[in-house]
What we know:
- Chain A is an alpha/beta fold.
- The first copy, chain A, has twelve helices and twelve strands.
- Chain A has helices spanning 3-10, 14-22, 28-41, 47-54, 70-85, 101-111, 126-133, 156-169, 185-201, 218-231, 243-255, 289-309, and strands at residues 59-64, 89-94, 116-120, 139-142, 150-154, 175-180, 211-214, 237-240, 265-269, 283-287, 319-322, 324-327.
- In chain A, the strands form two sheets. Chain A has a six-stranded parallel β-sheet with strand order 2-1-3-4-5-11, with helices on both faces. A six-stranded mixed β-sheet of chain A has the order 7-6-8-9-10-12, sandwiched between helices.
- In chain A, β6 (175-180), α9 and β7 form a beta-alpha-beta unit.
- In chain A, α1 packs across α3 (28-41), α5 (70-85) runs parallel beside α12 and α10 (218-231) packs across α11 (243-255).
- The termini of chain A are far apart.
- The model of chain A has no long low-confidence stretch (mean pLDDT 95).
- At the A-B interface, α4, α5, β2, α6 and α11 of A face α4, α5, β2, α6 and α11 of B.
- β2 of chain A pairs antiparallel with β2 (89-94) of chain B.
- The structure holds a DNA duplex.
Amino acid sequence: xxxxxxxxxxxxxxxxxxxxxxxxxxxxxxxxxxxxxxxxxxxxxxxxxxxxxxxxxxxxxxxxxxxxxxxxxxxxxxxxxxxxxxxxxxxxxxxxxxxxxxxxxxxxxxxxxxxxxxxxxxxxxxxxxxxxxxxxxxxxxxxxxxxxxxxxxxxxxxxxxxxxxxxxxxxxxxxxxxxxxxxxxxxxxxxxxxxxxxxxxxxxxxxxxxxxxxxxxxxxxxxxxxxxxxxxxxxxxxxxxxxxxxxxxxxxxxxxxxxxxxxxxxxxxxxxxxxxxxxxxxxxxxxxxxxxxxxxxxxxxxxxxxxxxxxxxxxxxxxxxxxxxxxxxxxx
Amino acid sequence: xxxxxxxxxxxxxxxxxxxxxxxxxxxxxxxxxxxxxxxxxxxxxxxxxxxxxxxxxxxxxxxxxxxxxxxxxxxxxxxxxxxxxxxxxxxxxxxxxxxxxxxxxxxxxxxxxxxxxxxxxxxxxxxxxxxxxxxxxxxxxxxxxxxxxxxxxxxxxxxxxxxxxxxxxxxxxxxxxxxxxxxxxxxxxxxxxxxxxxxxxxxxxxxxxxxxxxxxxxxxxxxxxxxxxxxxxxxxxxxxxxxxxxxxxxxxxxxxxxxxxxxxxxxxxxxxxxxxxxxxxxxxxxxxxxxxxxxxxxxxxxxxxxxxxxxxxxxxxxxxxxxxxxxxxxxx
DNA sequence: TCCTATAATGAAATCGATTCCAAAATTGTT
DNA sequence: AACAATTTTGGAATCGATTTCATTATAGGA
Lengths: 332, 332
């Protein structure tokens, strides 16, 4: 079914049908004939042809490091939900943490003529930064604060700072920090800084805090925790950059017979569903992943609409930081 | 940058440039001039225009019930990976379990002129079945065996049967089954049948097995398990339709002071990462989610390629069942 | 050298929509 | 009734690619 065939059947020109669909002067009589024909034929305009002619496409590219991950899929759910509500569809690209995967997808998305891109940030390399700057369509970053780019991200620093403060208040004053790669500014650097600043704020020596770097897995948390317990048997608490790491670490603590929370306090970040199935339940900082996705999508769409309507006035880069909520459970 | 501009710069016709890109007779001299011009300008053909002209689009619609879920995101990762490898992109639609959401997305995908659709199945309603049959592009279902449609799914029945057999062999001979809605044939009906048939196979009475229906959450598993323990204090084992439910159920068991695995055995399905962080670690049936996604994508692409090349010969519907692997851990 | 195959070439048609424009129809004003 | 202003209308151009087709250049064979 094409617009021409509909026009033919309704006995009008294709221009008339187009005007019917998009608004334009049309006699009531033809309007009715066209309405009926479209109803009977079940005609839907071809979006590809529409895009071709107008240059407007309602597809948004979403580039994520690995869709199979609790936090990533939550953010993606938020994005997809918001986009759908506003009549857009999601073009998903999952890099599987492949080196330079974002670059490839940035190209793919642009070849597909997407109206905008949401990039879930992990490590910002100069080469990626360049590619992002050269991106011909609006772009919003989630989960990281990339200076100079529109971002929606979490208050990682204060979330972990408060979490650590809670541990210290509970008397777990010789803590270790199980972090992730520093290449990841939000989850790596910010969370570590938050933990160490809380230690400093309590009048303790941050240099005495054992700091280790884990993968984003429970297995890695388990192994690193075991090492720390061997090297620093005196510690009585651990702040972990993610829940997964914390849950792995708890296994190591059980093996060593450390009593949680009496002799040892532990906390994670992300408020994963698994927190409440652990023994004891894991204290964590809730981050608003879904909202992050929704806000990022909303921000992107407003950038796109701005670009389409207004003259290209210079606009300020928008950065949005979302709060957090400490969920206290039995592990501290 | 359009093909015309490239042609202009290279001093050839746009037809020549098109032939350069798609193969066709071209003198070595022009070939070189075009190559250089494309390199200098960084020209990429406009995929929308290409699609417009050829009718071939390299986008696949993927409709899932809820992207924020362990199993769903694993399958999606497999799909996206396979599609990317073969030069396709993923148009993601997450229905958030909204009533009739699949129908809406089926329309959206077709309006976007996708080359094919992968539908992650949950509940098959007659109305959905009709919509799927009316789908104008090839379609593959994952996770469910919908008769008459191309499917890639798991051996849910035998996975749970073997799991249950294991529990019984370990002496947990008075088991309960914590299932999910029967509207979901794979996770609801097949898994329940597997459990009950194993009971029957062991010479026990399947009618004596308490069966309950949970949501797909740990909280729900916790509540239902608590009820079962109150009503049937004699039971000494539980087979759960998902790991999440099982992990929730374990919390109820702890509260009641049931010793796992000495006095009580429990098992789940899905081999979630959280299985190995539980105390004791949860025995589960590993389902090949990622492979399911990859195989579904491969199957869809072969259908598409078949359709594009061959005459429309009548082809048999392909149904692929994937195996499972029992991962025995401390909970049985 | 001449003639026939074959390769190379670009003008033009095409995909399905939107939109400009000039012409036709309708309305309102004297 | 005559004219101006406004609305309605469909033909044709357009978006950026591919592909057909007729034509020209080249190669190979006698």
